[in-house]
Amino acid sequence: MPDALPLVPEITDEDIDWVRDLMGLEVLDAPRRAFLSARSTLDVSACPGSGKTTLIVAKLAILSKKWPHRTKGICVLSHTNVAREEIQHRLGTVVVGQRLLDYPHFIDTIHGFVNRFLALPWLSSNGFPSPTIDNDVATAYRRGVLEKADYWWVQKFLEQKNSDFGRLRICARDLSFDLGGRKFPAGPDAKSFNLAKQAIKSAAQAGYFCYDEMFVWARALLEDFPEAASWLRRRFPLVIVDEMQDTFEAQGALLHAVFPRASSDFVVQRVGDPNQAIFDDADAEPDEHDPFPDPVSFLSIPNSHRFGPEIAALASPFAVTPVGTGGLCGIGPKAITGVPDSCPPAIFIFPDNSTAGVLDAYGKYILANFSDSTLASLAVTAVGAVHQDASDVAPGHEHYPKSVPHYWSNYTAEIARKEPHPKTLAQYFQAAQAIVRDRRDLAPGVEKIAFGLIRLASSVGDAGQFKRKARTHRAIIDALAADATVLAAYRQLVKALLIDWMPLTVANWGTMQNSILAMVRALCKGATEPANAANFIAWPGVDPSLTVGPPASPRDAGPNVYRVEDGNRRLDIRLGSIHSVKGQTHLATMVLNTFWYDHSSQQMLPWLLGTEVNASGAKIRDRKRLLQTYVAMTRPSHLICLAVPRFIFGDDHALAKHLTTLGGRGWRVAEIENGIAQWRN
Amino acid sequence: MYLSQLNVRNFRQFGDGDGDAALDLTLERGLTALVGRNDSGKSAVIDAIRYALLTRDQDFIRVQPEDFHLDRTGKQAADIFIRCKLSGLDDDEKGAFAEYLSYEGTDVSLLVNWIAKRLNESPGVRRWIDVSVRSGIDGAGPPLEASVRELLSSAYLRPLRDAEREMSPGRGSRLSQILANVHEIGQGDTFSETALPADAAAVSRLSLLGLSDYLRYSVKKHKGVGSAEEAINTQYLSSLSLTGDSLKGKIDITEGGTDKTRLRQILERLELGLLEASTGNVRGRYGLGSNNLLYMACELLLLGREPDGLPLLLIEEPEAHLHPQRQLRLMEFLAQAAAGKVKDTNRRVQVILSTHSPNLASKIPLQNIVLLEGGRAFPLIRGQTRLETGDYRFLERFLDVTKANLFFAHGVIVVEGDAEAILLPVLARLLGTDLTEHGVSIVNVGGKGLRRFSSIFQRREDTAPKLSIPVACVADMDVMPDCAPPILGLVTGDDDEKWKSSRRRWKALRDFGGAGKTQEQALNEWRARLQRNDGQSVKTFVANHWTLEYDLAFCGLAEEVYVAAALATNDDPLNEEKKQRADVEAAARTAFKEMETAAKGDRAALCTRVYQLFHSGGASKAIAAQYLAESLAKAGESTTCDTATFAGKLPRYIVDAIAHVKRPAPAPAPPAPAAGNGNA
Question: What is the DSSP string of A301-360?
Answer without folding.
Answer: E-EESSS-HHHHHHHGGG-SSPPTTT--EE----S---SSS----EEEEE-TT--TTHHH
